[in-house]
Amino acid sequence: MMQTPEYETKALDALTRAVAGALERKRRLGQYAVVWREDRPVCIGPDAPVECDDERRPPERAPGGVAESGRDE
């Protein structure tokens, strides 16, 4: 197994601290945050929009029956 170069480890540590700080600041301000969990974005926090947490909501359809994501599901 290859060893990770020191600069990559330092960069990852710096990014991890930055994200943790931003999430902590949002928590203290009472704001929600959008994070990635289980292959999808999820809103966390006390004021998170209800529709953001609807896991199995079908994609919105645009005129012509094409999904908003650009894929027809």
How would you describe this protein?
This protein has one helix at about 5-30, and strands at about 35, 40-45. By secondary structure, the protein is α+β, with helices and mostly antiparallel strands. The protein has a domain at about 25-55. It is elongated, with a radius of gyration of 18 Å.
Task: Offer a concise description of the structure.
By secondary structure, the chain is an alpha+beta fold.
Alpha-carbon Rg, integer: 18 Å
Q: For the residues shown, what is the average pLDDT?
A: 79
Enumerate the spans where pLDDT stays under 50 for 5 or more consecutive residues.
67-73
Q: What share of the residues lie within helices?
A: 25-40%
The overall strand count is 2
N→C terminal distance: 40 Å
Structure class: alpha+beta
Sketch the major β-sheet: 2 strands, antiparallel
How much of the sequence lies in strands comes to 5-15%
With helices defined by DSSP (H or I, 4 residues minimum), what is the helix count? Answer: 1
Order of helices and strands: HEE
- Order of strands, main sheet, comes to 1-2
Give the overall shape.
elongated
Features of the shown structure:
73 residues, alpha+beta, two-stranded antiparallel ribbon, 1 helix, disordered C terminus
SSE topology sketch:
Elements: H1 6-29, E1 33-37, E2 40-44
Antiparallel strand pairs: 1-2
